[in-house]
């Protein structure tokens, strides 16, 4: 006689065998009540095992999406065993099998209200886990944004340093210029801009822990006379700056606020200044979130209030905000590789990380990092660097050949 769990799951499993034929073993129960399992496909050895720990997981399994699968996992209702790469592939194929035909490619567009208090709380939720937590898998420089693999054989730390140099070279940053870094993280960019390029820098963040560690790192590097770290909203910054960078920050701004965001940057920019905006974008032309419920999972557990615009929306709102795009570069393939480095480091340090944070948060981050690698690899999300300046100016100001954006290009302006 079938158990109640088996009676519910068996028809679902038979449907999945027909639709997806996955190398997955589904088990439930513990000890004497353990069930040998149901096969979700035809295979000799399962690549992934799903162990149902709580009956509350069953409705989430029956309403398949990346959001429901992710929720069941991070809430401890199911355990999943296998290589992370195999788990992500299975999760997407399960979500595709569970989606209605008309919804498989659909990407919802959400509208989120943003204000200073809510934005600050969202930033602190994501970034104030602990500095040791981030340093364990980000690398020694603690740069939490897409690296730049110029040759393809760089270590993560080398690629992160090259990314920062790539940005500052595009900006043609000169000694003595005043630079503002919006969302400065743990201070790597402003410290590099001061130490190598001779700039005077201000970095702002809404994360208390980032502010504390970035300030300490500046002191340890002896750069207090050239670098100031502030716990401050960019909307409250006063003055004007020769160069402005925003790296991995505008994802928190909100679709309806992008024009105001770029307009505020324009107000802070000197008349002959330059801006480099480096951020994640949606690949959906209508600014839709990641498909199959992936966007809902990220909003629920990882990035509250985060919204990704399409690059066309970025360029339009940038122009409406008074800035002209001068150079646009897609670094999607670089972020896929960056995410692979982070996910591998996270997996390799699982025991250490589990001692730092609770099981739920460890599961959230494990899923998030691996899933983001998948989205960049499969054209769900992208990453663009956009160099811009005040709109309405003359066409001069940059060398004609694009080789000026690369240090060894042989042309362009002198560097310090």
Tell how many strands the DSSP assignment holds: 11
- Report low-confidence residues grouped into runs of 5 or more: 101-105, 409-416
Q: Determine the strand fraction and express it as a percent band.
A: 15-25%
Total of DSSP H or I helical runs spanning 4+ residues = 15
- Termini separation comes to 79 Å
Shape: elongated
Q: Which strand order do you get reading across the main beta sheet?
A: 7-6-5-8-9-11-10
Largest sheet: 7 strands, mixed
Mean pLDDT: 88
Pick out its properties.
416 residues, alpha/beta, seven-stranded mixed beta sheet, 17% strand, elongated, disordered C terminus
What does this 3D model show about the protein?
With 416 residues, this protein is of the alpha/beta class. 42% of the residues lie in helices and 17% in strands. It contains 15 helices and eleven strands. The chain has helices at residues 4-19, 57-62, 66-74, 84-98, 116-127, 131-138, 156-170, 188-197, 208-220, 258-268, 294-301, 311-320, 332-348, 350-356, 359-377, and strands spanning 24-28, 38-39, 48-52, 78-81, 178-182, 200-205, 227-231, 241-247, 269-282, 323-330, 381-390. The strands form two sheets. Strands 7-6-5-8-9-11-10 form a seven-stranded mixed β-sheet, sandwiched between helices. The protein has a four-stranded mixed β-sheet with strand order 2-1-3-4. α8 links the parallel β5 and β6 (200-205). α3 (66-74) packs parallel to α11 (294-301) and α7 (156-170) packs across α8. It is elongated, with a radius of gyration of 23 Å. The relative contact order is 0.12.
